[in-house]
Amino acid sequence: MAQTMRAETNEIVSINPATGEEIGRVANTSADDVRSAVDRSRDAFLKWRDTSFATRKQLVMAAREVILAEMDDIAGLISRESGKPVAEALSMEIAPVLDLMQHFARNTERLLKPRMIGIGLYGLLGRSSKVIYHPFGVVGIIPAWNYPFSIPLGEAAMALMAGNTVVIKPSELTPFIGLKIGEIFQKAGFPENAVQVVTGDGTTGAALVEAPPDKIMFTGSVATGKRIAEAAAGNLTSCVLELGGKDPMIVFDDANLDLAAAAAVWGAFCNAGQSCSSVERLYVQRGAADKLTEKIIERTKRLKVGVGSDPEVSVAAMSSERQLKTVFEHVEAFKDAGAKVETGGEVIVPGFTEPTDQIETASGFFFAPTVITGATNQMLPMREETFGPTLPICVFDTEDEAITLANDSEFGLTASVWTRDRSRARRVAEKIEAGSVCINEVLYTHGISQTPWGGFKNSGRGRTHGLEGLMELVQPQHIHTNGLAILPDAWWMPYTPAATATFRRFATDFASGSIVKTASMLPQLVKRIIELLKK
Ligand code: NDP
Fold first, then answer.
1. Distance between CA 437 and CA 411 in Å, rounded?
2. Is 276 an annotated catalytic residue?
3. According to DSSP H, which parts of 189-320 are helical?
4. What pTM does this model have?
5. What pLDDT, on a 0 to 100 scale, did the predictor assign at position 535?
6. How is domain 247-448 classified at the CATH fold level?
7. What is the pLDDT of residue 10?
8. Where along the chain do the CATH 3.40.309.10 domains lie?
9. Which of 5, 6, 171 to mutate to test the pocket of ligand 1 (most atoms within 8 A of CB)?
């Protein structure tokens, strides 16, 4: 069972990954239509950029009200189209994005306030500088299917607050959630074309990149991220790339093991392991290894797997057949390499044995939450992103070894360190190559919209969320004023021997940053300016 099918009319058919039920059909938008959408967005931008922060705030807050009024329906749609439990649609998509919306609605004006910049000794020459922030124009948002509501909606809300207009291309696996986002902004009263949604597959996404927008916010795999960066380079369109992860959790033997076990289970299995910041590798210190593993297995066995609408279900369907196959293959690779499956390790379909043929007969994409021991960094699935409900455990002895193992990856999105020793926690956290490192906590900081989100290494470029993320959505403009515009600048033409002597003093005295040294060059400066006034 494939999750999306191409109908005769070049439509995309959206399927519930838990049941195979058809949710509906949407257009696979053509490149011409995408270009028209971007043109309309650019026209809308010309008015939207001049709206006040108060108007933008009022509209974003109105969009929140629309979500609150339709919350259960939206949670149901998210669960039906992406497979995740309704509980997670509420806790990991709707609640965090509502928080993000109120935060940026209330604070963008303050965060983007024009600011004066200290310009050192140039100030003594009567100069001043300030920075103001301009929106880019049209922001093209291309999200993945794993958080199909909160990621594009949050990025759109931030982009709009900063004065941009938005075109979203949702994943072909979750087009109705994308359309719902457009409907929310429309119901809130946003001007026509301030937010548009173009449904389609990767070719529609590629057309959006080529249109081109003025900024691209992409969330997805490293491979697609590279393709987008390459295509965007042709138009010099700047992109934020939020890419994959292989996030390590390091547990020292003095950690609270009950808490660490519960966190590992949630961090590895929420959203059926399909979070960019899932715990994908667990490193535990030898002294705590047996106890922690036992607690994790025991908790994992208690998890109910099933359709996401069942409130008792913790691990629901994966979003696509492709993901299910990857997980199956990674578990097989672990076994082949000598690791041990302690619990789970199978697709939940009676009679399933092979990765491809049997999955096609499945009525839903369910994989049992899987705990694996004896994993090592040499095993392929410890190096590639699994993006599924697996928790491989590897034992270490020393702090240095833990850091080396955690950093031995092309990815660097998030990581966590578990210990009661706060100085060790901070020391280790600062040595981990990742965009976010949690101490005695896992995964959830994408939900804190005040903090920057983004990866080191192949996990991405740029940031979303926080001040850093907001800055990605604006162009700083420097406005410089000469408050003493009555005299020529000493560095103007014509050049003379006195000019050369003055410039030498600029190099040795002014550029030292010392007021005393700069004061000592005043006679030379005066001489040069008198010379210029005479010429
Ligand atoms: P993909 O890279 O396959 O797709 C991401 C988006 O890009 C989809 O909307 C897709 O459309 C679109 N797309 C595909 N091809 C192109 C193209 N040539 N040009 C433009 N757009 C294109 O990723 P997945 O959807 O499989 O997402 C999973 C990945 O996302 C994982 O690696 C995960 O770690 C990462 N991710 C990272 C996050 C972060 O914050 N760092 C957060 C969430 C996920 P379509 O689906 O229709 O093909």
1. 13
2. yes
3. 202-210, 222-233, 257-269, 286-301
4. 0.95
5. 84
6. Aldehyde Dehydrogenase; Chain A, domain 2 (3.40.309)
7. 85
8. 247-448
9. 171
